[in-house]
Amino acid sequence: MTADKRTDELTERYPALQAVRDDILKFYEILKECFDKGGKLLIAGNGGSCADAEHIVGELMKGFCKRRPVTEDFKKALLKADSENGAAIASKLQGGLPAIALSNHQALNTAFANDVDGDFYYAQQVYGYGKAGDVFLGISTSGNAKNIMYAAAVAKAKGMKVLGLTGKTGGKLSKAADVSIIVPEDETYKIQELHLPIYHAVCLMLEDTYFEE
Fold this sequence. Notes:
There is one protein chain. By secondary structure, this protein is an alpha/beta fold. The chain has two domains: 3-61 and 96-210, Glucose-6-phosphate isomerase like protein, domain 1 (Rossmann fold, 3-Layer(aba) Sandwich); 69-95. 56% of the residues lie in helices and 11% in strands. It has a five-stranded parallel β-sheet with strand order 2-1-3-4-5, sandwiched between helices. Helix 8 (146-157) links the parallel strand 3 and strand 4. It is globular.
């Protein structure tokens, strides 16, 4: 299914998202450009948005609605690397798009919070992992989370694209991001309820683009 059709399907089910339809497509195009060039996606959020960051990684790094089997060339390489187990390994692996949720590195994050400053551990990871051509996605319902803004600034300094997923007025993040999807809600839980179908749709668009099965 094309990205346009996926977006049409999304806005039919969630009419409020018609207002951000073009931004959803731009959001997808930036991610496609990143993955086309061998880049990766770094994602950060707080609270429920932290859970959303991890959710997105789960949809990108393994099969979402498709099986995503490994290529025949990689299957042969696995058999060469391990003649006994290569076939079994190949049968279990699924194609992934490189994405990292920055919340999951507890030893690093707690050490940085203790030794330096907890507001900056997302920024530290963007500095350490990020490179030009990568994308940083900041998820903030207000668009004003300090730790997300610090990470976005580092991303821009590294030559990365910045995406925002927000609500309310979009806050500072909407001004810093190359593309920001500002859902038309003001209450945190309502914003988060609209974030999920958006990132599901974008993950489906990317899966349609890169995987046949």
